[in-house]
Design brief:
By secondary structure, this protein is of the alpha+beta class. Helices cover 39% and strands 19% of the residues. The two termini are 46 Å apart.
C-alpha cells in the first residue's frame, strides 16, 4: 500500500451552501442571518440550513425554528428552493473545472480533486485561484473552505478543521503536509473524524479511547475489531497517511422522504404525498435500469414511528409499486382507525436487481400483464422527458404546498433535473 510523501488531494466544502446561495441570489439577504426552512408559513418545523451570520449566534443546521429564533431573534426564514441549489451546484462545478479537474462530487456541497505537480508544490496559489474564480464568475457570497493532505480522508478532516479557523466561520484553508502529521491531526476532536459517528464514539469510549491521539495510536487490527469490520482498519491506514481508496459502492435502494406541511398531516394527506414520492422513486429506478423486490413505508407520528414492508415480484412499473403502497396504507388505517398525526414520511424501494439480472417470480404467472404495465410506464416516462414536466402520471398529480416532491434539499444525493418535474 502506497504512502504519499507529499500532499496529493484537495477537499472543498462550500460554506453554509444553501443559505449562501440564497444570499447570492437575493441581495436583501446579504449580511443578514438566514435560515432555510422546508416551507413558509409555519414555525412548527426546523431550520434545514443557516448562513454564517446565523451560525455566529449559535444557530445550527436541523434546529427547531423556535429554538433558532430564541438564539437569533433577527433570523430571516427563507423557504427552500432545491432546484436553485442544484443549478448553483452545477454552475460552481463548471467554474472549478476550469481551474482543476474534479475527481468526485461527494455531495451537493462537497467535492474532492487530485493534485497535479503544480498543485502539490503551490497549494496556496491553487486555492486562491479557485476562490477567485467562484467569486468572479458565480458570486462573492458563495465561499468555500479547502483542505489539502496526502489522501482524501485527511484532506476532508483538514477542510473541516479550517471551517472555524481563527474564530471565524468559512472561507478557510488548511494544508496538512505529511511532515505536519500526526500533530495537526491530534488537535482535532475524535468526533470530527469521518466514520466516528455518535454510536461509534460511545463504543470507543467504552474501550477507553477518548481522543484522536489515542485513536491514532491504536493498532490497525484493533481498529478493525472495534468497528467489527474492515472499515476500521481502512480508517487506520487513512489516518496514518496511506493512499487508501474506499471500495466502489453499489446502489442499494431508491427512496424519498418529506416533512409534511401542517394541512397534510392526516392519513389522507400523507397518503397522497407518499404516492407522489413513490412515483418519483420509481422513475429513478427505471432511469437507472433497476427492478425492486420490496417496498418500505416509514411514518414519523406523534408517539414514535410506524413502519411497514411489502414484497414486490421484481418490478419497476408504477402500477405494481403503487398497489403495494395502497396495501401498506390500508394497514395504517387498520392500526389507527381513529386517525393519527403524521409529521414526516419516507418511501423506499429496496432489494434491487439490475435489469439484465432480473429473476421473475416463478409462482406468480403475471409476466404478460407486467410487461404491459412496464410498457405503459415507459411511455409515460418518455412523454414526461419530452416535455420536461409531469404531463402524464398514473393518478392525479397534485404536489402539496411548497412543491419539491422528490426534489428536496439533500446532503447525500445530488438531485437531477428530472427530480423537479
Amino acid at each position: 500500500m502506497r504512502k504519499p510523501e507529499t500532499i496529493e488531494r484537495l477537499y472543498l466544502d462550500f460554506d453554509g451552501f444553501f443559505a449562501s446561495v440564497e444570499q447570492q441570489c437575493d441581495r436583501r439577504l446579504r449580511g443578514r442571518p438566514v435560515g432555510v426552512v422546508p416551507f413558509e408559513g409555519t414555525d412548527r418545523t426546523a431550520v434545514i440550513a443557516c448562513s454564517r451570520e446565523a451560525k455566529a449566534y449559535g444557530v445550527k443546521n436541523v434546529m427547531p425554528i423556535n429554538e433558532a429564533k430564541r438564539l437569533c431573534p433577527e433570523l430571516v426564514l427563507v423557504p427552500q428552493k432545491p432546484d436553485l441549489y442544484r443549478r448553483a451546484h452545477n454552475a460552481l462545478l463548471s467554474e472549478i473545472e476550469t481551474v482543476i479537474p474534479i475527481d468526485t462530487a461527494k455531495s451537493i456541497d462537497e467535492l474532492t480533486c487530485r493534485l497535479d505537480e503544480a498543485g502539490r508544490s503551490d497549494p496556496l496559489t491553487l486555492a486562491a485561484k479557485i476562490k477567485a474564480t467562484i467569486a468572479e464568475n458565480v458570486g462573492p457570497w458563495i465561499t468555500c473552505t479547502i483542505g489539502f493532505a496526502a489522501n482524501r480522508q485527511l484532506a476532508k478532516i483538514a477542510c473541516k478543521a479550517g471551517k472555524r479557523d481563527g474564530g471565524r466561520y468559512g472561507d478557510g484553508l488548511t494544508i496538512w503536509r505529511p511532515e505536519d502529521l500526526p500533530a495537526a491531526l491530534h488537535a482535532v476532536t475524535m468526533e470530527e473524524i469521518p466514520g466516528v459517528g455518535g454510536n461509534m464514539a460511545k463504543r470507543l469510549y467504552r474501550a477507553g479511547i477518548f481522543t484522536t491521539e489515542q485513536l491514532y495510536n491504536v493498532q490497525a487490527k484493533h481498529m478493525r475489531k472495534l468497528w467489527g469490520n474492515v472499515t476500521g482498519e481502512r480508517l487506520w491506514y487513512a489516518l496514518h497517511g496511506y493512499d487508501i481508496q474506499a471500495p466502489a459502492s453499489s446502489r442499494g435502494m431508491f427512496g424519498h422522504g418529506r416533512v409534511l406541511p401542517p394541512e397534510s398531516r392526516t392519513i389522507r394527506g400523507a397518503r397522497e404525498i407518499s404516492r407522489l414520492l413513490l412515483i418519483k422513486a420509481a422513475r429513478r429506478l427505471r432511469r437507472e435500469n433497476f427492478y425492486a423486490g420490496g417496498l418500505w413505508l416509514w411514518l414519523s407520528i406523534r408517539d414514535g414511528t410506524w413502519m411497514g414492508k411489502r414484497h414486490l415480484p421484481v418490478v419497476n412499473d408504477d402500477q405494481a409499486i403503487l398497489s403495494a403502497l395502497s396495501e401498506l396504507w390500508d394497514q395504517v388505517g387498520k392500526d389507527h382507525p381513529r386517525g393519527l398525526m403524521i409529521f414526516r414520511i419516507g418511501v423506499t424501494l429496496y432489494d434491487l436487481s439490475p435489469s439484465h439480472e432480473r429473476q421473475l417470480d416463478l409462482l406468480l404467472n403475471d409476466d404478460c400483464q407486467r410487461r404491459r404495465w412496464e410498457n405503459a410506464s415507459k411511455a409515460i416516462d418518455n412523454l414526461n422527458t419530452r416535455y420536461a414536466s409531469t404531463v402524464v402520471s398514473l393518478g392525479q398529480w397534485r404536489p402539496p404546498a411548497g412543491g419539491h416532491v422528490g426534489g428536496k434539499i439533500s446532503y447525500t444525493r445530488i438531485p437531477s433535473a428530472e427530480d423537479f418535474w
